[in-house]
Batch of 4 targets.
Target 1
Amino acid sequence: MKEVIFIIIAGVASGIASPFIEGSIVNLIRFTNKFLGDYIVFTPMLGFWIVGFLARKFPIILGTGVDAYVDHTRKISPIETVLKYISTFITLGLGGSGGLVSPTLFIGKGISESVYKKGERILSIAFASGMLTYYLGTPLTAALLSVEYFKKDEISYEDLMPAVMAATISYFHHNAMGYEPIFLKAIHASEIPSIELKNVLIAFVVAALFGGIGLVMYFLKWIYRKFTERLNVYQKTIVSGLLVSLVGIIFGKNVLGLKVVLGQNPEKFIAGKILATVFTIESMGSSGYFTPLTTIGINLGYVLERFGFPHQIGSVLGISALLSSMLNIPLAAVIFPVELYGYKALIPAAIGSSVSYMLYKKFRIE
C-alpha cells in the first residue's frame, strides 16, 4: 500500500513540476537560436569550449546522458544535474545540433536522486516521463521512452505506471498553460492518408533503406569518435566547433540548434543534420539523437514523395525506422508516429520499426 501511495505522489508531483523545468530549457534554447539568427553558424566552437571547461571535473555531463540514466549503480549529484542542464542549453543554444530527450532522462534522474534517494527509480522514470511529455507533446511515447531507455529490451509494467501517471498530468498541465510542443506545431496530422495495399510492399523496402541510413549515421559516429580520441579536450573543442560551423555554412543554419524544418530542400537538410549531429554529440556537446532522427525521418518522407509515394506515410516510415534501428526503442518508435499523425500511421510505423529493428539491431547506438 505504501508503494502505491508513493507512486501516486511521485506521478502527481513530477507531472506538475516537470513542465516548468523542461519548459525553461526549451524556451531558453529557442530564444537563443532566434536571437543569434544568421550568426549561429559562428558560435558552436564557443559553446563547445564552454561545455568542455565545465566538464573538466564532471565529464559525465558530456554526450547524451543515457549511460548515466540506465546505470543503476551511478548516482547523479545535484551539481552534475545543474551542469547537465547548463551544458545542454549552451550546446544547443549556441548552434550545436541535437535534441533534448536524452539530456532530459539524465536531468530527471538527477532531480529524483536529489529529492528522495530511496525512491529514485520511480521518481527518475516519473520526472523523465513528465518532462518528455512537455517537450514532445506525446504522453504515451514519453512514458514508454522513460521505461524503454531505463531497461533495454524489457518493459516493466511496474515502472510504466508512474510514467503514465506523470505523463498524463504533465500533458493536461502544459495544455492548460497554452504550450504547443515543437513537433505537433510543425506537423499537420489530419493530412495523412490511409496506406494502400500497393504501398505496403514498398513500405517494407523503404523501411530497410531508411534503417540503412541510420546505419550510415552510426558508422560516421564511430569513425569520428575514433578520430577525436587522439585529440585533447581543447583540440576536440576547436575541431568539432569548426566542423559544425562549416556544416552550417554549407548546408544552412537550419541544421543547427533546436529546430524542426520540414520539406525545405530535404536532401540538403538531411545530409547537413546528420553531419552536424554527429560532430556535436561525439565532441563536447550535450544533446541527444532522438530529435535529429525524427526531423531527418520526416524529411525522408518528402524525398520519397518525389517518387510518387505519399510523403506523410514516408515520414512515418522514416521516423520509426531511424528510431528503432539507432536507439533500440522499437515500441516507442511505433507509438510516437501514431501520436503525431493519428491512427492511420499505425501500419507504416509498425513496418518501419519492426523491419529496421530486426535488420540493424547489431548496430544500435544506445
Target 2
Amino acid sequence: MNETIKTQLNHRTIREFKDERIPEEIFKTLMEVARRAPTSNGMQSCSIIRVKDNDKKAVVSEVCNQEYVKRTPELLIFIVDQFRNMMIAKEKGGNVDNARDMDRFFQGFTDACLAAQNVVVAAESLGLGTVYFGSILNDPQRIIDTFDLPELTFPVVGLGIGYPNQEPQLKPRMDMSLRLFEDGYKIFDNYLKAIEDYDKEMTQYYDLRDANKRVDSFSDQIVTKLYNPIIKRQEILKTIRNQGFDLKI
C-alpha cells in the first residue's frame, strides 16, 4: 500500500487548526492540483474563491452555524462557474442560450466537487488537515451576495485547510457490502439488521465537537436529521433559478 492510500484511509475531519499560515508556495501547489482536476467536456466550469477577509469569514461562519470557520487558516469556496464560458462565447458571437441549462449547471457542480477532493488528497499528503463546509448551502443566497457571485455561478462547497491542532478519532464507516452492488441496486430485507453492527460501532465514537459525549447510533442520526430540515436548503432550486439557470421540469 502506498503512502497516498494510507493517508486517504486515515482521513479525519479537522476543525481546529494551529495559528499558522500555509506557505504560499504550498498553496500555489494545491491550486495547481485543483487546476489539473478532471473536468466535464474539458470546459473547466468551476472556480474558487479564496476567502481572506475576516468579515467575510464571519459571514460564512454564521451561514454554516460553525464558529470555528472563522479560525480556518485557508478558507476556499468552490463554485459552479458557467459565467466565464458564457462571456467567452458571447465575445466570440456565439449562441449563449444553452449556457443556462441544467446540463451545464451539473457539469460545473461536478467539476467543483472533483477539484475540491483533489485539493483535499494533496493537502493531506503534505501533512495538512482539511474540513468540508457543505453547510454553506444553509443559505446559498447570502454566500452569493457576500462574494458578489454573478449569474450562472453557484456555491457548491467550502473547504478549510491548515495545520491540524487536534487528533480526532477515526470516524466509523458502514461496511461496503451496504454500498457496493454488482450489476444493479441491492435492496435489503431488513436495513436495521444489516446495519446492526455499524450502529453499535458508531455509539463508541466520540466527536470532538462534544468530546465527553458519545454519538447516537447511525440509524438514530438518520431519524433526527429527517426531523430537522433546514428551510433555506429546501429552497435551493429557487436560488439556482435566480442565478439564471433554466430549470426545465
Target 3
Amino acid sequence: MRKKRSKKGLLAKRRRAGYGFVAHWIIGLVLFFAYPLVSSIWYSFNRVKVEPGNISTEFVGMEYFRKILAEDPNYLNHVRDSLGTIFYSLPVIIALSLILAVLLNQKFRGRTVFRTIFFLPIIMSGSVVMNLLNSEFVTMPLFTSGTSGSGIIDYTAIIRSLNVPGLLGNILAFLLSHTISLVWSCGVQTILFLAGLQSIPDSLYEVSKIEGANKWEEFWWITVPSLRHIISLVLIYTMIELFTDMKNKVVSTAYGLMVAQNFGESSAMLWFYFVIVLAVIGTVYVLYNRYCVKKWE
C-alpha cells in the first residue's frame, strides 16, 4: 500500500510540476487569444462602433455574411484564388523541402557552410535589417511579365525568343513567376525534414544495402515512410502558412477593413474563410492518413 501511495504521490507531484510549467502559457492563451477570438465571433454578427473608452455593438445578424457572399463582387473570387494556390503550392513546397533536406543531410565537406548559406535568407527575412533595407530594389521581384514594369528579369521576352508554343509558354511563365516565392517558403519545412532524416536509424539503410536495394528504393521504402509523421506536420504547417499569408487577398482585404475600423465585416470575412480553411485542412489530413500513413505503417 505504501508503495502504491508513494507512486501516486510522485505522479501527482510530476503532474503539478507540469501544470506549473504551462500555467503562464495557459494564462496567456486565455487573456490574449481566447478572449479576442470569442470577441471576433461576436463582432461578425454586430455593427461595431469604437468610441473613446468604449466599444459599442449593435446586433445585425447575418447582414455582413450576406453582404460578402451576395454583394461583394471580389470576396468569393479571392477565396477561390486562395484555394487554388494550395493545389499547386503545397505539393511543390513539400517536394522541394524534402529534396533540399535530403541534399543537406548528405555527408560532404562544407556541409555546415551550405546549411548556413541556405538558411541565412530565412533568418534575415523577418529581421530589422531587412525592414531597414526595405527599398525599391530589395523588394523588387526577380521576374516580371513585362507588363507590370517591375522586376529584374523579363521571362516573357525570354520565352518568346525561344519560340515556345503558347500553352507551354503560359505554363512556364506561371511557374517562373512563382518559383522564387515557393523556394523562399521552404525554409521551416526543410528544417523539419532535416530533423526527421537525422532520426532515421542507419541500420535500416545498412540492411537495405545488404538486400541489394538501390537509392531510389531506399528513398521510397525507408526515407518517406519513416518521415510519415513529419510530412503530416509539414502539410498542416504549410497549409496554415499559405492560407494566412498577408499576400493572400482575403487576409489583406480583411486587414484593410479592420484598419478602417469596420470590425464587423472584417470578422465575417475571416470567419467564413476560416471555416473553409478548416474543412480543407481536415480533408487533406484525413486523406493523407487514410491513403498514406496506414499504407506505410
Target 4
Amino acid sequence: MERYQEIERSIIKKYRKDIWGKFVKAVMDYQLIEENDRIMVCISGGKDSFLLAKCMEEIQKHGKFPFEIHYVCMNPGYRKDNKELILENAKTLNIPLEMFDSDIFEIVENVEKSPCYLCARMRRGCLYKKAQELGCNKIALGHHFDDVIETTLLSMFYGAEIKTMMPKLHSENFEGLELIRPLYYVKEEHVKAWAKSNFLTFLNCACRFTENIVEHEELSKRKEVKNFIEKMKKTNPNVDYNIYKALDNVNLDCVLGSKRNGDYTSFLEFYDNAEKR
C-alpha cells in the first residue's frame, strides 16, 4: 500500500467518527455538495485545507452522484521553502494540485492600516476569479468547528455583533459562486491528531508579515479567545458545542434588535403588539 493510501485509509478507519463521519454529516446537513457541482478546493498549505482535499476526494470516489473537483493553491508570495513544502505535501498526499501566483504580499507590504484585512479580501477575490476561470460554481474552504466558535466570540467581544461563520454562503460580488465549509463539524484537535499520526508536517503560518511577529494583534485576539474557550471547557466540557447550538436556537422574542440585509429592527417595533396578543 502506498503512503497516500495509508493516509486516506486513516481518515475513514481510525478517524471515521471524529473526522470522516462529521465531514459527511456537515455535507448532508447543509447540502454542501450537489450533483454535477464543479468545486474548487482551496489549499492554503495548512493541515485543515489538505485534510479537506482528502475528504473531498474520498466522497467524490464513493458518493452517490457525480461532481468535479479542482485542487488549487494561490501563491500570494510565499518564501521558496514554504512553497516547496506545499508542493511536497501535495505529492505525498497524491493531490493533483494546481498552484498559481499572485503579487498580493508585495501589494500589501507597505500598507500600515489593516494589512491583514486587505490581504484577506484580495486573496478571496483572486480565488473567486480563479474559480470562475475554471468554470466552478462552488469554492470549498478548510475552516473547522473551532474556527466557527472562535469567530463567533471574536464578533461578540470585539465587533459588538452576534454572527458566525456560515457553513455556506453566496458570493456578493461574483454571481453564481457559492462558498462552502465541509469541515464545519470537525474539531481542530482531531485534525492535529490525524496529521501527527501520519507524520505529516504542514505550514502553520506562511504570512510574510506575521510569521516573525510574536504578538500580532489579530492573531493574539484569536489566541485569547481560544484560551478563553479552553478555560471554560474545564468546568463545562460542552461549552463550544453550546455556543454553536445557541446560534441555531436564537430566541427572537428575547433580543434587543436584529439585522436582515443590513436593515436594523428593534424589539420595540413589535413590543406593543406582543402585549395585545
